[in-house]
Design a protein that fits this description.
Length: 244
């Protein structure tokens, strides 16, 4: 199945089903190194069309994203995490499943971030769970609830005078419905995994209209083949690093 054509009720991000595809992965899928083995091919230097060029990068990008999530889940014990102090349905006029979440102070903020302390960003992927997992096997424990969620926008952040403590309020897009009545009776935790905004921007670039004047201008047509100009590669890299 073409991931960009999959259907889902989660459509907050107009991203050609990139996040929906991630949400469709099971835990076993995330750790399956052969998930896209048959779809990931050696990328050619010459392409029959602009669509052929774009399509060549779809599954490699999904595989890169899967690997990114897998790697993050292997270090859960040191990942930034916080306890959820409030979780409510967020008003939305497009029938989309959103929640407003608020955390107390984040812990392990310096883990894996070099000299920078962790702070919540749009596109952050978390595990929302009714316990604090230390290893991946904890996610398979009977009777425990967890799901992947994505930050759909930061509402507010509070820091201490020394910026060592951070509390966040942000919109949450979950992979599945959250039973607020059940959640309200338990302690809930958010565990940060990774940020997928760069990958999502590349995905959006790969699904741009093939009739776009911009694409035509930076493509070099020649007979039955189209040799894609290096400017197109640069354009996609600009999407990744938010230069454009």
């Amino acid at each position: 199945m073409n991931p960009s054509c999959s259907s889902s009720r989660n459509s907050y991000f107009d991203d050609h089903n990139f996040i929906n595809t991630i949400f469709s992965w099971s835990l076993q899928d995330i750790f399956n190194q052969d998930l896209y083995k048959d779809q990931v091919k050696c990328i050619e230097l010459r392409f029959k069309s602009v669509g052929h060029y774009f399509g060549s990068y779809v599954y490699p990008l999904l595989e890169e994203t899967r690997t990114q999530l897998c790697s993050s889940m292997e270090t859960l014990q040191s990942s930034p995490f916080a306890e959820v102090v409030s979780l409510k349905e967020a008003p939305d006029n497009k029938n989309r499943m959103l929640y407003n979440g608020r955390t107390n102070r984040w812990r392990n903020r310096s883990s894996g971030h070099g000299n920078e302390m962790y702070k919540t960003l749009t596109g952050d992927v978390f595990i929302l769970a009714d316990f604090k997992p230390e290893i991946v096997d904890d996610l398979q424990r009977t009777g425990k609830m967890w799901t992947l969620v994505v930050s759909a926008g930061v509402v507010e952040e509070e820091t201490s005078d020394h910026s060592e403590e951070l509390m966040s309020s942000f919109k949450i897009l979950p992979a599945k419905d959250i039973d607020l009545d059940q959640v309200g009776q338990k302690s809930m935790f958010m565990i940060f995994l990774t940020n997928i905004t760069p990958n999502r921007r590349i995905w959006e670039a790969l699904h741009m209209s093939q009739n776009s004047k911009l694409i035509q201008k930076i493509s070099c047509a020649g007979g039955d083949e189209v040799r894609v100009n290096l400017m197109l590669c640069l354009y996609i890299k600009c999407f990744k690093f938010n230069i454009l």
